[in-house]
Structure formats: C-alpha cells, structure tokens
C-alpha cells in the first residue's frame, strides 16, 4: 500500500462514509443520517441516484414490502409499485437531491476511490481523486455501495466475478423514444409478453430480425415499457457481450457499439410496428448500464435456490423481495436460462449476514455487490430491492456508531426494530 501521509492532509471526518451514491447509496446515506449519524457520500459522477436518475433505468423493478425506502421514493415520484410505469427521471433527481440536503449529508461529487488506509482490520480513511489531486476522508463505519464492489476490493475482501466461465451479464444502454402514435399501446416487458400485430407476432418479428441482420446478433427481443406519457416508450434492447465493465477501454468500446445499436433498434421499430413510424430518441443513459461485476463474499452467500424457495432468515433486513432470476445471456442473445425465460422467484428475505464481508471489521456492503452467487445476484440486483438493502445497511451503520461496535457484533434485532417501528413488515 502506498504511504499517503506525506501527500494528503485529512480534513474530513464522519461517522459513516458511503462509497457510491447510486440506488443503494442513497438508501444507505439517507436512512443512516435519519438515525442520527454524520454521513458523507463519495460519488464518482455529478449526480446521485444511479439507475433512478442518470442510469435511465425504468420502470423501477423488484417487489417489496410497504413503508420501505423504495416505497417512499416511488410515492414521491408518483409511481405505483408493480404498475410497470416508468418514472420521471428529472423529478427523481430533484427528489433525491432534496432528501439528501434535508438530512445534511455531505456529497463529494466527481470523486473516484483510489485506495484505502487500514489499521489492523479496520479502514481508517478512503483515498479518492478530485480536481485538486488526491484527498482523504476519515470514518468510523464504511458502506460499499459502489455496485462494482470497489471499496471492498481495495480493502482486501474476497470477491467473485461473473459465472463459472468468467463471463458477466452483458452491458446495455436504455433509452426513451417519443412520438409513438397515441392509438398504439404495445408494451413488451419480458420474453413471455407477446402482442399480435398486423404483420405478425411481435416477439417472432424480433427473433426474425435478429436472424436476418436487421437487429444486432445479440438482440432478439426489443423490450418496450410504458413511458412517462402515453406517446413515449422506454426501450431495453441493446446488448454488448463479453465486456469487462471494470476495464475502461472495454467500456468505451462497448458504449460506441451500443449507441450504434440504438439506431438499429429504432429503425426496426419504425419499419415493423404500426404507430412507431415517426419515433425519435428523446434521451438515454449517460454511460453504459452495468448489470454485473464483482460480488463481495460475506458471512452468508445467497443462492438461486434460496430465491426459488422463498427462503426466510432469522436476521432478515429486506423482506419479501421478489424478482425473476433475470440473466441476460452473457454469450448470446436473449436469456441464458435453458428454456429462454427467466425463472420466477418466490418472495424471499435478504439476511443481514449477506451484507457482512469477512475480512474488514468496520465495513458493510449494500446493493448489487452483496454476497450471493451469479444466479442469485440476477434477482436482487434490481433497483427497488437494492435501495432497501441500502436502507438496512444505513440503519446498521448508524447503530454501530451509537453503540461503538463493529457490524458483525451488532445485534441484528436492533436493525429489525428500527424497520418495524417504521411500519415495515419483516416476519409474515
């Protein structure tokens, strides 16, 4: 490890430092501050919210119990859980910024993690880059909400990457098209949701276009979600396989490919679907959308069978989460599951142990990089579930500071009490 002492004078010190201000990061930081901790967020981009905002991911997916952070956010943005309705990204930007400001959370924008400083088994400082060079931030508890497990990796935690052959789910760019004719109501949320058009079945037309080269070879379904207004659709179709999202060069090449695919998808829709003749791209995500990278191995490793069985845990901190095992094919088009359709989970619990890495004492993990297998991750990686995982981690972080204990020594029942006092059902 590099000796930063001669280079960096630490002037920032907090109770809890949240690395990453995306979906799980805002859940962690806001809830942690509400529990009385002094909180900072280190965010590499210039905006908070991740998939909710700059990530341009809609509709928000993943079932949850009422009175959670996901419930609060969707109500504020005016979207009903499970409605399939996309949310207004600009409105969500305002909502999240206000929530963070109301809790007096300090946000370090445009800052990327470089390294950590540890003493024995505890992190003392995070080292991050700024426009003025390297800086340090001190904390008592740290929460890794980077999605890519960057903080945990730098801290020496055991991480896994992708499936057995080393491939991760493909990266994509989601975008919105406008000028859909108001009489055309087609939506396509998944591989089993078909629509009969004048010129054939929509899903069959997608597959044929993939085969004949009208669509890219990795795109055999063009998913269409209801937009903010009836004449818009969110499009989830582009797909770049074999990309390591942790490699900046590969990520750059993937973005060029995906933006080219956007035009192919739009041309397909214009010529195939009546009412889409005049569509145009309204907006899109700022960068590539990453579904999967590192997973941080913790005290409990969630498995796909846990999800399929709807497994319950004594140390539950996210209850009745539910989403299909949604593995976009890392080596081809469509889904990687054997029959081409994702397996549906039963409502399952996320245990506190899956948020506890095994090496570093004062570190928690939240969001899509918690402890689980490649297939399990494909379900809990979605936004509504991740923000609630972040909420639980934020409660844990604040309690650890109050009681001066490390996360693995914290009584999980105290996290549960905070949640149930908010009206969150954990045990039905």
Describe this structure in words.
The protein is an alpha/beta fold and 428 residues long. The chain folds into two domains: 12-164 and 292-421, FAD/NAD(P)-binding domain, CATH 3.50.50.60; 175-284. 28% of the residues lie in helices and 20% in strands. The strands form five sheets. Strands 1, 2, 3, 4, 5, 6 and 17 form a seven-stranded mixed β-sheet that branches. Strands 11-12-8-13 form a four-stranded antiparallel β-sheet, with no helix packed on it. The chain has a two-stranded antiparallel sheet with strand order 7-14. Helix 1 (23-34) runs parallel beside helix 9 (383-403) and helix 9 packs across helix 10. The protein is globular, with a radius of gyration of 21 Å. The model has no long low-confidence stretch (mean pLDDT 94).
Structure summary:
The protein has 428 residues and is α/β, with parallel strands linked by helices. Helices cover 28% and strands 20% of the residues. A hairpin with a 6-residue loop joins β11 (223-226) and β12 (233-236).
What are the salient characteristics of this protein?
alpha/beta, FAD/NAD(P)-binding domain, 10 helices, seven-stranded mixed β-sheet, 2 domains, 428 residues, 28% helix
Layout of helices and strands, plus pairs?
Blueprint: E1 12-19, H1 23-34, E2 39-42, H2 69-77, H3 89-102, E3 106-108, E4 112-119, E5 122-130, E6 133-144, H4 150-154, E7 159-161, E8 175-178, E9 196-197, E10 200-201, H5 202-212, E11 223-226, E12 233-236, H6 248-272, E13 280-284, E14 294-296, H7 304-309, E15 316-321, E16 348-351, E17 363-365, H8 374-380, H9 383-403, H10 412-421
Parallel strand pairs: 1-2, 1-6, 2-3, 6-17
Antiparallel strand pairs: 4-5, 5-6, 7-14, 8-12, 8-13, 9-10, 11-12, 15-16
Helix pairs in contact: 1-9, 9-10
């Amino acid at each position: 490890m590099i000796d930063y002492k001669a280079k960096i004078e630490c002037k920032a010190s907090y109770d809890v430092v949240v690395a990453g201000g995306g979906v799980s990061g805002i859940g962690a930081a806001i809830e942690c501050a509400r529990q009385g901790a002094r909180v900072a967020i280190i965010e590499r981009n210039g905006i908070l919210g991740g998939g909710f905002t700059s990530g341009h991911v809609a509709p928000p997916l993943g079932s949850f119990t009422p009175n959670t952070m996901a419930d609060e956010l969707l109500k504020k943005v005016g979207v009903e859980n499970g409605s399939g309705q996309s949310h207004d990204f600009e409105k969500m930007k305002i909502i999240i910024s206000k929530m963070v400001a109301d809790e007096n959370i300090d946000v370090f924008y445009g800052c990327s993690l470089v390294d950590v400083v540890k003493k024995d088994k505890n992190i003392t400082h995070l080292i991050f880059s700024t426009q003025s060079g390297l800086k340090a931030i001190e904390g008592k508890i740290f929460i890794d909400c980077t999605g890519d497990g960057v903080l945990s990796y730098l801290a020496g935690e055991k991480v896994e990457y992708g499936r057995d052959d080393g491939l991760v789910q493909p990266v994509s760019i989601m975008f919105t098209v406008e000028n859909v004719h108001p009489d055309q109501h087609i939506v396509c949320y998944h591989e089993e949701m078909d629509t009969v058009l004048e010129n054939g079945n929509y899903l069959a037309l997608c597959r044929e276009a993939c085969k004949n080269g009208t669509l890219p070879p990795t795109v055999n379904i063009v998913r269409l979600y209801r937009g903010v207004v009836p004449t818009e659709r969110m499009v989830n179709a582009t797909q770049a396989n074999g990309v390591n999202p942790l490699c900046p060069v590969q990520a750059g090449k993937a973005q060029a490919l995906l933006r080219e695919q956007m035009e192919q998808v739009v041309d397909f829709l214009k010529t195939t679907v009546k009412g889409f003749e005049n569509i145009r791209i309204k907006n899109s995500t700022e960068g590539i959308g990453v579904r999967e990278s590192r997973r941080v191995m913790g005290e409990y490793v969630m498995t796909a069978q846990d999800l399929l069985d709807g497994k319950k845990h004594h140390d539950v901190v996210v209850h009745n989460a539910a989403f299909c095992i949604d593995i976009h094919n890392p080596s081809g088009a469509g889904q990687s599951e054997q029959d081409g359709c994702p397996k549906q989970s039963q409502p399952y619990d996320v245990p506190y142990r899956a948020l506890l890495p095994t090496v570093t004492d004062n570190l928690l993990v939240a969001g899509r990089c918690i402890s689980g297998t490649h297939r399990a991750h494909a379900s809990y990686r979605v936004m509504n579930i991740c923000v609630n995982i972040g909420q639980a981690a934020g409660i844990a972080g604040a309690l650890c500071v109050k009681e001066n204990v490390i996360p693995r020594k914290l009584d999980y029942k105290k996290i549960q009490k905070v949640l149930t006092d908010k009206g969150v059902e954990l045990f039905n």
